[in-house]
Amino acid sequence: MNDVEAMELSTVNDISKATVYLKDLGPDVVFVTLGKKESWLLIMKSATK
Predict the structure, then answer these.
(1) How far apart are CA 29 and CA 34, in angstroms?
(2) Range of the domain at 33
(3) Is 23 contained in some domain?
(4) CB under 8 Å to 3, separation ≥6 — which residues?
């Protein structure tokens, strides 16, 4: 992960913003990934492509 990607991920700490991103992937994803940093970062990285 480069610095730009890391910076983008760090700005998604706001739960309401993050939930909007995750809802685009499917409602079930929100419940599975919230609180799991590794899965969270992987999904957020995929969502920003």
Answers:
(1) 8
(2) 15-47
(3) yes
(4) none
